[in-house]
Amino acid sequence: MFLLPFNEYLSVYTKSARKQKVHTDLVSVTNNVDVTTTDLSVCRSIPASDFPGLVDGFRAVVEALKEVCQDFVSKKAVFGAFPNAVTQLKEDLRDLAASLVALEQAIVGLAPDNLKSQVQDLSDEANAAIAAAQAAF
Known about the structure:
The structure is a single chain. The chain has helices at about 5-40, 50-75, 75-80, 85-110, 115-135. The protein has one domain (about 20-40, about 50-135). The chain is built from five helices and no strands. With about 140 residues, the chain is an all-alpha fold.
């Protein structure tokens, strides 16, 4: 039986945990986006007074997404140590991008005209973060 020295084992375990954290973060953000989209899809209308809060919530999702994407890129060397890790995380990013488009469309479909551009700008920021993370690999 082959046993790794403790330091090597710890290094592999730490790298695996980092990869798993980024995967978990991406899936978590995607799930939250999907839940919000589902909630919005049953709405026929939302009072205009509620939209600033909705846009703020979308902004928070975009900020979380940007952090996860930056984390993904910053740990590029870690992911190289695991077969299929980059592929899995790129798939996570594609799923998140698709979910984000659905959320953006749901918000824009209900938003007053004066807030649609804010939603589009935030969506553009999120798409740029995803594209940068995908391009890094």
